[in-house]
Amino acid sequence: QVQLVQSGAEVKKPGASVKVSCKASGYTFSSYGINWVRQAPGQGLEWMGWISVYNGNTNYEQKLQGRITMTTDRSTSTAYMELRSLRSDDTAVYYCARGARALATDYFDYWGQGTLVTVSS
Amino acid sequence: DIQMTQSPSSVSAFVGDRVTITCRATQGISNWLVWYQQKPGKAPKLLIYAASILQSGVPSRFSGSGAGTDFTLTISSLQPEDFATYYCQQANSFPPTFGPGTKVHIK
């Protein structure tokens, strides 16, 4: 069965970076894109960006451009999301999610369990 | 970016009630509207895609309809496990965007 398993919770200081991993199993990793979605405490869902596992193409939410990098390692079926220059309003649960249609604009049929990133001095 | 709105923001209902949630897009999105269910502390779960197609394994009491800018999610007979927050999302135009959510409470 399809599974996305994310790395554990992180606590970071403002200005630091965080890198969250998402290990996929149960399907052909390169056939689908991976998206990242975050959810601040008590808030709704915010799409952050997409990476094509097939060719490495990325599209990021405009307001995160310059602070975010998404990568994949096809040898381990793992996707990564790095967010730099962290601020307190980056405190959120970060989810990876498989794109159902392998498109840059997609919907998400399988989700990781979420990774809480807390930014606090 | 296409903005998504949902109404109501919250609804209280009894087990067995019929519940309808509305989602509206600021521009036409064809039928590329998706619904998710999220329970506290859990990841969202895909319920419906392409406005009306039930994801595999989702109970038939869930249904979706609409096209263009106006969409609805209906739960025909609310069950205890359906108390959750429901989000719509448009998957037609970059970037994908979510509605603010509708919380379904127990009455």
What is the strand tally of chain A? 11
Q: Regions of chain B with pLDDT < 50 over 5+ consecutive residues?
A: none
- The average pLDDT value of chain A, as a whole number, equals 97
Proportion of strand residues of chain A = over 45%
Number of helices of chain A: 0
For this entry, what is the oligomeric state of its chains? heterodimer
Keywords for this entry:
heterodimer, A: 121 residues, mainly beta, 7-stranded mixed β-sheet, 11 strands, 0% helix, B: mainly beta, 4-stranded antiparallel β-sheet
Summarize the structure.
The complex is a heterodimer of chains A (121) and B (107). Chain A has no helices and 11 strands.
Description:
The complex is a heterodimer of chains A (121) and B (107). With 121 residues, chain A is mainly beta. Chain A has no helices and 11 strands. In chain A, the strands form 2 sheets. In chain A, strands 2, 4, 5, 6, 9, 10 and 11 form a 7-stranded mixed sheet that branches. In chain A, strands 1-3-8-7 form a 4-stranded antiparallel sheet, with no helix packed on it. Chain A is globular and about 40 Å long. Chain A starts with a strand and ends with a strand. The mean pLDDT of chain A is 97. Chain B has 107 residues and is mainly beta. In chain B, 0% of the residues lie in helices and 50% in strands. In chain B, the strands form 2 sheets. In chain B, strands 2, 4, 5, 6, 9, 10 and 11 form a 7-stranded mixed sheet that branches. In chain B, strands 1-3-8-7 form a 4-stranded antiparallel sheet, with no helix packed on it. Chain B is globular and about 35 Å long. The termini of chain B are far apart. In chain B, 37% of the residues are buried. At the A-B interface, strand 10 of A face strand 4, strand 5 and strand 10 of B.
